[in-house]
Write a structure and sequence with these properties.
Layout: E1 2-9, E2 12-20, H1 27-34, H2 39-58, E3 67-68, H3 70-74, H4 78-88, E4 94-95, H5 98-109, E5 118-123, E6 128-134, E7 137-144, H6 148-152, H7 159-171, E8 180-184, H8 186-194, E9 204-206, H9 207-218, H10 222-227, H11 233-236, H12 239-253, E10 257-259, H13 265-277
Parallel strand pairs: 3-4, 5-8, 8-10
Antiparallel strand pairs: 1-2, 5-6, 6-7, 9-10
Helix pairs in contact: 5-13, 7-12, 8-12, 9-12
InterPro entries: ATPase_NBD, GppA/Ppx_hydrolase, Ppx_GppA_N
Domain Ppx/GppA phosphatase N-terminal: 22-270
Pfam families: Ppx-GppA
Length: 282
């Protein structure tokens, strides 16, 4: 959850982050295993929404947007949980499909692109979104049921790897020899941080650097990842399978480097809210 304030000064809008809360519920683990969210996890989810509702009220938020992705859209009781939160907590949740998820992330990353070809890779817990850009325009997009939590727990069908490879080969044309990857998601941000890059402004890693970080982490036990690398437990277990997905796509696309702009779905959501409400400041 992020709460931001928008200020208009000398004709320029500035978006300032006031609050950011990350609480890992792992809804997907239930869904990918049992096909539904269990009552115990549903109860925690409702409590979390109540906590967010209190923060929204305390900050006197004027407008908000809540998006649910692969876990809730694939859960057999996802719609019932959304209705329960709406009726009992007073918050409306949008269950979005992979295309809508990709479109929202697009709003956040497009400012980092130029006319060259780019392959955007967004790895979540339950799905991976791939988008190809050229001349600032998105020319292809696809969502795959492959994510860090799903892969870690062996809930990914083997043919998904081949489906990703086929899609990449089909949509990256011969004139895209030097395509650059753009990575979003918490795991690639942490991989970049662990690479200890000296030039922090460039926000770029080579394929070899991603491989090096993944190799280093994979050799460590969970306790070593948590205590030596200071990773949160919910990051320490999924970071290696997430790296596998980024690397698999980059290799198939022959991308030698990846840009890590440190933006994602929430940033696209903020862009949507900003566009909807900026007239109030004019």
């Amino acid at each position: 959850m992020q709460i931001s304030n928008v200020v208009l000064y000398e004709g320029k809008f500035t978006v300032k982050k006031l609050e950011y809360v990350r609480f890992p519920l792992r809804l997907g683990k239930d869904v990918f295993d049992k096909g539904a969210i269990t009552p115990a996890l549903e109860a925690k989810f409702v409590k979390l929404m109540q906590a967010f509702k209190l923060l929204i009220e305390l900050y006197e938020v004027e407008d908000y947007k809540i998006c649910a992705t692969s876990a809730l859209r694939e859960s057999s009781n996802g719609r019932d949980i959304v209705a329960h939160v709406r009726d009992n907590v007073g918050l409306s949740i949008d269950v979005i499909d992979g295309q809508a998820e990709a479109d929202l992330i697009n709003k956040a990353i497009v400012k980092y692109l130029d006319e060259k070809p780019y392959l955007h890779i967004d790895v979540g817990g339950g799905s991976t979104e791939l988008n190809i850009y050229k001349n600032h325009e998105k020319i292809a997009s696809e969502s795959f049921p492959m994510g860090s939590v799903r892969l870690m727990n062996s809930y990914t069908a083997p043919e998904i790897w081949q489906n990703i490879e086929d899609w990449v080969q089909q949509h990256i044309s011969a004139d895209m020899h030097y395509i650059t990857a753009v990575g979003t998601g918490g795991n690639i941000n942490k991989i970049y941080e662990l690479a200890n890059k000296k030039n922090k402004k460039a926000k770029t890693m080579t394929l070899a650097e991603v491989e090096q970080v993944q190799g280093m982490i994979s050799k460590l036990s969970m306790d070593e990842r948590i205590n030596n690398l200071m990773l949160n437990p919910d990051r320490a277990d999924v970071i290696v399978p997430a790296a596998e997905i980024y690397l698999h796509v980059m290799r198939r696309a022959k991308a030698k480097k990846i840009i890590v702009p440190d933006v994602g779905l929430k940033d696209g959501m903020i862009e949507v809210l900003f566009e909807k409400n900026k007239h109030k400041l004019l």
